[in-house]
Amino acid sequence: MDMFLQIALVLFIATGFSLLMQAIRQPLILGHILTGIVAGPMVLGFLHPEGPFELFAKLGITALLFIVGLSLSPKVVREVGASSVVAGLGQIFFTASVGFLLVLSFGWDPVSAIYIALALTFSSTIIVLKILQDKKDISSLYGRLATGTMLVQDIAATFMLVVMAAIGGGVAGNIGPALLLVIGKGLLLAVGLIFFSRVILPSMTKLFANSQEFLLLFSVAWGVGVAVIFKLMGFSVEVGALVAGVSLATSPYHYEISAKMKILRDFFLVLFFVTLGAGLSFTGISHLIIPAITLSAFVLFGNPIILFVFLRRLGYAAKPSFQTGLTMAQVSEFSLVVILLAQTMGHVGEDAVALVTVCALVTISISAYLMSFDEKIFNFLKPVLDRGTKKSSTQEPKSEEEHHEAILFGCHRLGEDFLPHIVEFDEYLVIDYDPNTIETLQKKGINARYGDAEDNEFIDDLNLQSAKLIVTTLPDVDSSMFLLSKLRKVNQKAIAIVMAHSATEAKLLYGKGASYVILPHFLGGNYASILLDKFGLSQSKFRLEKEKHLRHLEDRLKRSNKVMNNA
After folding, report:
1. Whether the Cβ atoms of residue 364 and residue 420 lie closer than 8 Å to each other
2. 407 forms bridges with which residues in the sheet?
3. Which domains, ranges and CATH numbers included, belong to the chain?
4. Distance in angstroms (rounded) separating the CA atoms of residues 266 and 454
């Protein structure tokens, strides 16, 4: 069939499934995978995962990870780096260990059990980051933790492929030197990119920014080029694309680059998930139903529990720990690569490939639902998840009777603007459930405490009746509703400033007693309208307001840089 006709039919079918998914309020990713199954060899048979569609899929992966990398500044990487490494490696070890024992219990030989267990260990970077971006949660605490953990998994997967290639080539005794070679290549790439991004890229991007078309061309060339270099050096395209984005994250043009790349990302990602669906095979799986259900259940529920426990031990609150755990509840498309390579080497049979394929489809489909409704699931399970963890070891002991005139909940992004006003009070407190944020604030001499705004006992201990100002920048409307209800029961005079994402949420919060509700998406336009009413068309007045705004931005950047240097 003509390639143009294939693409037209695929897009037509994908549009139909997307309409269906939207009508029943399900993740669009599931519709794209179903499109691949229908158009692929199992049903209509005109679409094959090899060839041009495979190229489109790789372009989609590169675009997605490049854009994600643009949002990961070095500051963000340092904030969650250590936690992601510990949690990521811990999850890999425990998932592989338990998975190995489960597979053995179904009668597989030890070699096959090792490969199947390793295939179940890795989560889908592409699917998770796509859903995080759709939910606009990439920059949230759990979004940053999930991205960091995924990066750890990708690096571990690279080392696994090196080991498998060495074994397949009959050089098992040279695995050590092969790994050292990969580490050396990684360090060389890191040094080269750091030098390039700090010395050469700033002047280059300034040159490219003179033309919007030139900027787009440079962005595509840079993302694909770095990804290719990483692949040639023995790493995955995913890691290369992510690092390419990180290298531009500090550029003043990274927002514009991200906006221009999103159109390419959205189109090619649809084709990626379609290609993924077309490559699924379900031949001869009737005798694998029980093992597939068992292993899928382990991935869907075991992985989140493992990661939840690790993050709680590291000092994170229940909610971000739970949400991060849910991002690991699926088998990666990389798992299919691992098991197919093992089959090529003659280490596993077709049954192992079929088993991992079924687990991939089941877990990818269900995990998309879990991530989409994570907050509702957390609220349902909250009594169980909080049990025995009310008094976290990272919480400081509190006095029986506290008095805080001003309390700020959440000091990330929007909270930084309120911080200078909060610290002007004689008695104030900053509360956040990110241990790294608390550590940074305490190093600066700011009275900060780890805590969860949804912890009933924690809020009761704060003695809210003495507060004059309460500010919460938490994005979850349920948290704000709970906090307002606790406040207004004991204090009707305090000013309460909260945040919402829609007019409907704002009305609910006002009904609960909020003094003012911040709507970030409407605030900019509302403020600009006020300026027009105040200044009219006076250029001199707008110039003065512009200079005032620039001074505020410079002060904020200085504070952010100071925090980065102290971190």
Report:
1. no
2. 429, 470
3. 3-374 (1.20.1530.20), 406-518 (3.40.50.720)
4. 36
